[in-house]
Amino acid sequence: MCEQFITLTTQRKIMETNIDHRIAVPVGVTLDRYIMHNQNAFSFATGELSQLLRDIALAGKIINREINRAGLIDITGGFGTDNIQGEAQQKLDVIANIRFIRALINGGEVCGIISEEEDEIIYTGNNQSKYVVAIDPLDGSSNIDVNVSIGTIFSIYRRVSPLGEKPTPEDFLQGGDKQVAAGYILYGSSTILVYTTGNGVAGFTYDFSLGEFILSHNNIRSPLDGKIFSYNEGNYNSYDSFVREYLIECRKRNYSARYIGSLVGDFHRNLLKGGIYLYPPTHKDPKGKLRLLYECFPLAMIAEQAGAKASNGFQRILEVEPEFLHQRAPLYIGSETMVNELMNLI
């Protein structure tokens, strides 16, 4: 009886402690509040960019909901068409594309959009708006059928064409260094939005109970070096000799090979833990496979803002001059020391 009383008393104290702890812990800084407090750090800060980031976050919440119920309402699997890249579209690709386009049109801060899922520029009708967006609405969407992490990648530019007119390809072909903001949303065990406006990198985890993105990773800094290397082993024999030499060296050092076929997932892990992601040219894709404007450029901006590096094998990715909207490029991105070692082998 005495032991039972002690046990009940102990349990009550633990419960009270946990309750006190939950009450004492603040909810945290929401994405909206963070954007508002840091608005002065944005170039040309007049509020439009802040609202644009909120519009992207809203679309991310909607996509998160669709992904979580995908298996229940039959929106997994192929859609039956190919995109501009010649890749089979998944149902969720199409849904995510529609959701982001609607959010950006209704938000009113974007005059034009290019998407992996669309051949041409999407004109929003908001020709007085100052910004254009390049986006991969759902990267790695074929993984949804097996419940593997997928993501959204976006890049934002201030238009160079005159206000009041339709946006032009030149608005999107300014080059990676002209991005005013870039980010990604990772849909996984938790949903996290990571972005930069050129003043560091911040990450926000989605709190389902509140319906808010909460600051969880302030001022992200990637480790200088790492022990993770991410690449498609199936393409090994098609890689250039210097890439194969580097991969052999990674194996000799007993580095961990981690590759899930979802660019956002692989990049996010390596960004936080230290590592390198490689997608070299192959015989099938001699110019590379990843899209320069809405995959390589935004992730490279985030990488550099976090102290990491990104290269196409010959030059800094952000210095590559884009020539057309859906241009492809090789990508080597990750911890500075690892990228430098690979580049020294060329």
TrEMBL record:
The keyword DNA-binding does not apply. Its main location: cytoplasm. Residues 225-344 form the Fructose-1-6-bisphosphatase class 1 C-terminal domain. Substrate binds at residues 139-142, 232, 259, 277-279, 289. Mg(2+) 1 binds at residues 116, 136, 138. One of its GO terms (cellular component) is cytosol. GO terms for molecular function: fructose 1,6-bisphosphate 1-phosphatase activity; magnesium ion binding. Its cofactor is Mg(2+). Residues 30-217 form the Fructose-1-6-bisphosphatase class I N-terminal domain. Transmembrane segments: none annotated. Binds 2 magnesium ions per subunit. GO terms for biological process: fructose 1,6-bisphosphate metabolic process; fructose 6-phosphate metabolic process; fructose metabolic process; gluconeogenesis; sucrose biosynthetic process. NCBIfam families: PRK09293.1-1 (NF006778). Belongs to the FBPase class 1 family. This is Fructose-1,6-bisphosphatase class 1.
